[in-house]
Design a protein that fits this description.
The structure is a homotetramer. In chain A, 46% of the residues lie in helices and 10% in strands. Chain A is α/β, with parallel strands linked by helices. In chain A, helix 10 links the parallel strand 9 and strand 10 (286-288). In chain A, helix 9 runs parallel beside helix 10 and helix 10 (267-280) packs across helix 11. The first copy, chain A, is globular. Chains in contact: A-B, A-C, A-D, B-C, B-D, C-D. Chains A and B meet through helix 5, helix 6, helix 7, helix 9 and helix 10 of A and helix 5, helix 6, helix 7, helix 9 and helix 10 of B.
Chain lengths: 365, 365, 365, 365
Amino acid sequence: MSTDYVPSREDRFSFGLWTVGWQGVDVFGSAVRPPMPAERAVYKLAELGAYGVNFHDNDVFAFDATPAERDERIGAFRKALTETGLVVTTATTNLFGHPMFKDGAFTANDREIRRFALAKVMRNLDLAADLGARTYIFWGGREGAESGGAKDIRAALDRYAEGLNLLCEYVREQGYEIRFAIEPKPNEPRGDLYLPTVGSVLAFIATLDHPEMVGVNPEVAHEQMAGLNVLHAVAQAWEAGKLFHIDLNDQAPGRYDQDFRFGSANVKSAFGLVKFLEDVGYDGPRHFDAHAYRTEDYDGVRDFARGCMRTYLILRERARQWNADGEIQALVAELGQRGRRGLGYERLDQLTMELLLGVRGENLS
Amino acid sequence: MSTDYVPSREDRFSFGLWTVGWQGVDVFGSAVRPPMPAERAVYKLAELGAYGVNFHDNDVFAFDATPAERDERIGAFRKALTETGLVVTTATTNLFGHPMFKDGAFTANDREIRRFALAKVMRNLDLAADLGARTYIFWGGREGAESGGAKDIRAALDRYAEGLNLLCEYVREQGYEIRFAIEPKPNEPRGDLYLPTVGSVLAFIATLDHPEMVGVNPEVAHEQMAGLNVLHAVAQAWEAGKLFHIDLNDQAPGRYDQDFRFGSANVKSAFGLVKFLEDVGYDGPRHFDAHAYRTEDYDGVRDFARGCMRTYLILRERARQWNADGEIQALVAELGQRGRRGLGYERLDQLTMELLLGVRGENLS
Amino acid sequence: MSTDYVPSREDRFSFGLWTVGWQGVDVFGSAVRPPMPAERAVYKLAELGAYGVNFHDNDVFAFDATPAERDERIGAFRKALTETGLVVTTATTNLFGHPMFKDGAFTANDREIRRFALAKVMRNLDLAADLGARTYIFWGGREGAESGGAKDIRAALDRYAEGLNLLCEYVREQGYEIRFAIEPKPNEPRGDLYLPTVGSVLAFIATLDHPEMVGVNPEVAHEQMAGLNVLHAVAQAWEAGKLFHIDLNDQAPGRYDQDFRFGSANVKSAFGLVKFLEDVGYDGPRHFDAHAYRTEDYDGVRDFARGCMRTYLILRERARQWNADGEIQALVAELGQRGRRGLGYERLDQLTMELLLGVRGENLS
Amino acid sequence: MSTDYVPSREDRFSFGLWTVGWQGVDVFGSAVRPPMPAERAVYKLAELGAYGVNFHDNDVFAFDATPAERDERIGAFRKALTETGLVVTTATTNLFGHPMFKDGAFTANDREIRRFALAKVMRNLDLAADLGARTYIFWGGREGAESGGAKDIRAALDRYAEGLNLLCEYVREQGYEIRFAIEPKPNEPRGDLYLPTVGSVLAFIATLDHPEMVGVNPEVAHEQMAGLNVLHAVAQAWEAGKLFHIDLNDQAPGRYDQDFRFGSANVKSAFGLVKFLEDVGYDGPRHFDAHAYRTEDYDGVRDFARGCMRTYLILRERARQWNADGEIQALVAELGQRGRRGLGYERLDQLTMELLLGVRGENLS
């Protein structure tokens, strides 16, 4: 088996532009890294072995860019794509950064804001279609509330559905080959966000006019923030035919949104997830939605991006070993035939840990 | 407005038999209260003003009861119901207490156990129908895993669905007027439980053969264990027409399953939930699925049960005050018309807190 | 008893300048409110009934202010204090905002940064002494790590102690009447922060050269982020004679740092804390370290600040009622004399809840 | 380096008798495994390579054993120790299982219960001394409360201290070579436990009459329940000279007390802890305080116990590799000399992960 763990385009690794472009601004401190134009991120990611990028509209051009500025920025981005061969796997609208969205976009109580948000999405859908993106992500970063009285939840959910219905209609009218993926998150930056979990998104999709056009974009960190088992969530999405995309990163449960390097917080959970994606034949992007520690300069950002991919490749290799390990597979074959005896799960789990840690050697069946 | 907060049958309060019958056995200690036969629980609950009960089969008779013992126990229970006029609102199968279910019932790897579980449910469905229960609860207390390799999650979800499909068919064949309600829980007693949240249950229902027969039974504590906003979950279930039942209790987030007295941990959240149920016209049981502290004797259990109902009634009164409060309603009327100004949520939330604490006096609009 | 809940200076309410000056910048969005100069915050807080303020050096003047700018800003601040009569209760050094502190200040691996940090503190200690502050707060917002290998924890704790020892020495040499209070926090903005809890700070103080000069500044939200009982922590600090200050706000457990209005998330916990502070005769500032929701303009900020104080006053009144309630006090008198009977805690807790909700009426003993 | 990971007595592995003897009783289900007498546990643990055991008094004999029964049970236990050569590293009193302790032992409001508890400890201290235990553990499993009014926290802390002072005095009078180690836990089985964290225990010790006799017994799972970094806590205890013992196991944050096999939930955290213990030269027992999944029979219990030790040995080997890895050590040497550049923590952390996963090969410096 390969032991060099150097990514190639066939591995289908992608990154958000923001993930390498994040300057380190947080609630308590200012930027630690200079701005990174979108095109520069594209060149860097191509060098490292990625095959695609996701972009938020305002990763490429500023919210208040003039048409000329917008065109110039898109042009540079497009040129970088052409030169590197990177694809745009997905696109997104930033509906959370600007003060106008402080109470949400699709679920804002103010009708004008809801309308503005829809227009912003439509405009970026045009761009996304033009750039070849086939999946459009919705992360409702301000769709929520801190105070129970602030929003009528039923109205909020209705408005959320209404917005997505209208956008599905728009995509159909335009004839775009784009499908939607909603990304759940339980909280932060709002006290509580609507559609907090993969399950709630799956249930919500069933209420839409075109459920076949809409899937889910689970993010490891977002499920883990709520202490939920991300693999169980991903498996439910897969079974429902709704795993349209996935965001890989890491996170300690019960904390602020950490967006750590994939596999760096809970490698056992990451292993289970990689194994699942590979076993079921998920063929979408292995997308990293994380960022380098704020302690790093751009060398550290490169280490971060490379590390995400390397860890995926190591875990993929471990997953293949697990499937080929005679002792492990013998235990697996027995599951369901042990009657009321002890079920052997301690042994299976320990063998898995030892395999993960690289001390199983070859136990091929 | 009433200030005595004495429950009556019209308030539709119900309790699980186990809630008053719990003897205080936990992982670290033995029983602190003597056993309470089901019929005794019925008489006690009737005295306190409840109108209904839920029962697990093994709350009434032991797992290994002989047919004669079973009949005797059911007879005593039935007699108590007749004498008190209490109704059986819901019934449940205990599929978690016996060692045979240590790896689950519907999702057990062992086929014999899955079959036994289905037979146990069917037998209790017959009893439930006979006793007039219209809702049958499924809480999969052992449907989960500690170790990723132990169960194939997709197979587990398939088996879960297969079990429920078969039971739906059974209910239809028998002509019972019973519908199902699945109760989610994120973890405990298993490391991770399948169908961890209200959202995941709603999504799961859509995959069943008879989704119209199956709804959700949200439990306050179970959503709060994962730090999720229970009202948001309940609202999504309501909007989907799936709020078939509700379990009221309380819980600090990120801890063991506490099953505290309703409103005793987070009264603001409880207020929001009561207000929602009353505002939308939920007409099912206000069901308490909690227990008295282990420090208590049966006097304390009575205080606990009475407290659950009193707190509900107090919060219901507060909800009506909120709807009638002129200053609050003026703010609510403005939601959506404040443009990009400040949204007034601090003021609205503070007024709500003051109303909740009983210092708003009369501010009728 | 008073029912108007209008704060007066005798109530000893104070606020951080940042609490009303926060512009709403977070990880996901930009400023929603214009900047508020320190002097303006002073006038506003005085109007609302506060008696004091805390300031971080860079709340008053910018990190890179020229001497002239610094003097001008301090002059305006001082003038506002004089005109309003507000006191400076406490001061703090901002050792977390500037990029140079990205890996900490006292615990940074880089010696130059540690030295710079000490010099920054000393300079601000001079200002604090001059402005009459008697307590100096240390919150080590970047003293921590994301990665286990990044810092030697033992070295980090040694450096932390070394820094505080040096600063104690400085205060003694200068003859300032200032004592220190360390504010613990478990995480955010670092993956893990050193000295995460009140207990860890108390233990750390014992290792310093002048433990008598150093106490703890518990913050409600910071203990609750880790799901800990803040009252238990405060009580331990009080018993140790180390409750030098307290930061009041609110927070849902297991989430990002929310800094909500005091009492708005868990009012029962807030009640217990107010009751404790009043019962033991804590005579320091009742300090609010929170901020208005990002949805608000400066009217909402005023509502927020007023709400913090009003809630405290309501809860203080409720605490007095609890101490005067005959039925409650009869139960309290019995604690310890119930032998192995049930302990009556359900009843006591329910009475407490009803008192809190304002439905106990008068039950004076 | 060794790759067989077979424990020997020199590795100083110990287990609680309860860890292998736990029958699987939890809140939701009954025993799944037959009882295991203490002596049988000793023989089993000896076979597996352990060198010592901890015992709770009621692990060896029942709470209500007659003197003859007690003697017989102790005799069998002692015989097993003699025959196997296992040592008794530590002993403990069960002050949580019996209903009389439902509101605590040292902190119970009822004076008679406090006295009984002290007598129970003294009697077991005699036995512990006789069996050669040098450390005596205090885990206050019921020392806490669910309701704020139930106990006066200050009185509770005073009583806790009073109890320990008296017991220190007893040990001194008897001339036993025994020191105490207090084990913190944040919650479960009580709503909140007193002395919830390592920090709070360290601070509490300073208030005792003989602080030199008392240390801390950190448990991995207990710190992680509160989402705290267990290594940071252990390091603070070590620096204070108070790491008298350690309980190794594993746990997902923000959940019920899981007591999983060491390293099975968060292997990166386990690695950091093993590395610390080995690097600083901790020479106490590597004690496992965990249990096998409830799905297991006694074969699974054996797998569990063996797995704890194997994982420790693997991680110890990995720690040595980390210290010998040239690339890693070069980065470590640079810490503190990178000025305001990026700090290289992403790279260091990724190298650590790769080393942990066994793909670093030999990079000896």
